[in-house]
Amino acid sequence: MPAFFHTLEKIRPVYDWAYKIMLFICKLLLIADIIITSWSVLGRYVSFISDPHWSEEIILTFMVYMAVLSATLAIRKRSHIRMTAFDKYIPHKALLVLDLLADIAVLILGVILLIEGLEVVSPAGNIAKFAKYSSIPTLSQTWMYLPVAIAGLGMIIFELEQVFLRIEEFYKSNDGKEAQA
Question: What pTM does this model have?
Answer without folding.
Answer: 0.79
